[in-house]
TrEMBL record:
InterPro entries: HATPase_C_sf, HATPase_dom, His_kinase_dom, HisK_dim/P_sf, Sig_transdc_His_kin-like_C. GO terms for molecular function: kinase activity. This is histidine kinase. It comes from the Bacteria. SUPFAM superfamilies: ATPase domain of HSP90 chaperone/DNA topoisomerase II/histidine kinase, Homodimeric domain of signal transducing histidine kinase. Residues 105-337 form the Histidine kinase domain. Pfam families: HATPase_c (PF02518). Its EC number is 2.7.13.3. It catalyses: ATP + protein L-histidine = ADP + protein N-phospho-L-histidine. It comes from Azospirillum oleiclasticum. SMART domains: HATPase_c (SM00387).
Length: 344
């Protein structure tokens, strides 16, 4: 069935051969020319058949190659998706680890004011019980009552101040924890929010002994995603604690935020630590790149920062650094985040 295209040509060639036998060409030269023409036609048919067979083989080979390419592409896409899934899982684990560290730090931080409150309340309760006994026994003197009032004033002051301190810590933690675990958009004032974030991180900062300075325009409101901003600042702080300062040495972290123009917020995060080598500056946002692989570095902190700023905040980030002269991350993002497309 492959060569049925040439059946008609073969029949014509057969007729031409019959004509060569039966016709009178009038001369041997004419018969020889006709015979040569017939031979050429036969050769052409054979060549066409050969080319057809070759074309069929090439078509089969091309089909095989295409099938192999499709298979390899499917395998590559599956491998890429698996890599993305693994990366997403690692990033999520990094975020949860950050939240876990925040919980531990806040729990430790709250223990102090709660402990002082309990102690002061216990002392006040003992003083009240003693005063009641003296009153019931009729032995209560003016000096005893004055001493009780002094103790009660001091205990009340300690209870109120430390209870307020605990409430402030809990409120800060509650807000930033909600922001971190959701992708909700809301309007928030930037300067108080920066203070809330740093309050949540204060246990780690205080243990390290570093000074943190916040400079922000008063009344600067942002309509966006505070959870993403919290994660960005947390990762930048942890990156500075791990990489910028040598163990036992203290330094300064400075956060400056301002309205760069009518629509853009500029946030500069600066430390006066070790700085970043020029060869590493182009790679610090790459996933899994870290200079402290054996010291707890995952290489995902700044990669998460980059993704959140570019993807969620719709902004940009750049780095300026000189070895031994500290590092500055320059972040810009819209004051009013653009609307995300609605999935349909």
């Amino acid at each position: 069935m492959t060569f049925t295209l040439f059946d008609n040509e073969e029949r014509m060639a057969g007729r031409a051969e019959a004509a060569l036998r039966d016709l009178d060409f009038g001369s041997d030269e004419a018969r020889a020319a006709y015979s040569e023409l017939l031979d050429a036609y036969r050769k052409s048919l054979r060549e066409q058949r050969r080319m057809m067979r070759l074309g069929d083989r090439l078509q089969e080979q091309l089909s095989t190659v295409n099938q192999e390419l499709v298979r390899r592409r499917a395998e590559a896409e599956r491998a890429l998706q698996q890599l993305r899934d693994a990366q997403d899982s690692l990033i999520q684990a990094e975020k949860l680890a950050s939240l876990g560290g925040l919980v531990a730090g806040i729990a430790h931080e709250i223990n102090t004011p709660i402990g002082i409150t309990v102690t002061a309340a216990s002392i006040l309760a003992d003083q009240v019980a003693g005063l009641r006994r003296q009153f019931q026994a009729g032995t209560l003197a003016r000096s005893d009552f004055e001493e009780f009032m002094t103790t009660a004033d001091e205990a009340s002051r300690l209870v109120l101040s430390n209870a307020n301190r605990a409430v402030m810590l809990i409120q800060s933690f509650k807000q930033v924890a909600v922001d971190q675990t959701t992708a909700d958009r809301r309007v928030f004032e930037l300067k108080p929010y920066l203070s809330e974030v740093l309050t949540s991180l204060s246990p780690r900062l205080r243990r390290a002994g570093h000074r943190v300075v916040v400079e922000c325009d008063e009344g600067l409101e942002v309509d966006g995603y505070p959870g993403a901003l919290f994660q960005v600042l947390t990762n930048l702080v942890m990156n500075a604690l791990q990489h910028a300062f040598e163990a036992g040495k203290t330094g300064t972290i400075r956060i400056r935020a301002r309205l760069f123009d009518a629509d853009t917020v500029e946030l500069r995060f600066t430390d006066d630590g070790n700085g970043i080598a020029a060869a590493d500056q182009g790679r610090i946002f790459d996933p899994f790149f870290t200079t402290k692989r054996g010291a707890g570095g995952s290489g995902l902190g700044l990669h998460i920062v980059f993704n959140l700023i570019v993807g969620t905040l719709n902004g940009s980030i750049a780095v300026q650094s000189q070895p031994g002269e500290g590092t500055t991350f320059i972040i810009g993002f819209p004051r009013v985040a653009p609307a995300r497309p609605v999935a349909v």
